[in-house]
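Quick one:
INPUT:
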């Protein structure tokens, strides 16, 4: 467990959230690779579950809200928030993961988080969040 790296990466997510939405695929990447960009020894299911736990942490204080991009018939995308909050977000992610694994493009580039409190810094990290980075 690398607490310093975990703090750096969560701070990065908060900074990125100030500028843009954060796709779930990016969150998967954050918990899948170390500071040298070497992959952690995690199964696909662990990578998915760790990303889900990190997303839940980001959502838990109301700093972020979950949403998804939906392709329309004309090829454009419509962004919408999950009305059911984290629970609906989690169920959708689990269905996408179950239907196509960790590399499912709809899992990586459909669901996202949007930051509600622009400029807000990341909170302190618990050991259980730091453990996701290792």
């Amino acid at each position: 467990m690398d607490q310093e790296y975990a703090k750096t990466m969560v701070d990065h997510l908060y900074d990125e959230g100030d500028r843009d939405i954060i796709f779930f695929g990016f969150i998967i990447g954050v918990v899948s690779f170390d500071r040298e960009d070497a992959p952690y020894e995690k199964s696909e299911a662990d990578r998915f579950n760790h990303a889900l736990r990190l997303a839940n942490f980001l959502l838990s204080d109301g700093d972020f809200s979950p949403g998804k991009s939906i392709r329309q018939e004309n090829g454009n995308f419509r962004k919408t928030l999950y009305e059911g909050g984290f629970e609906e977000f989690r169920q959708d992610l689990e269905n996408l993961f179950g239907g196509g694994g960790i590399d499912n493009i709809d899992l990586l580039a459909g669901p996202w988080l949007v930051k509600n409190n622009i400029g807000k810094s990341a909170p302190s990290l618990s050991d259980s969040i730091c453990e996701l980075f290792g």
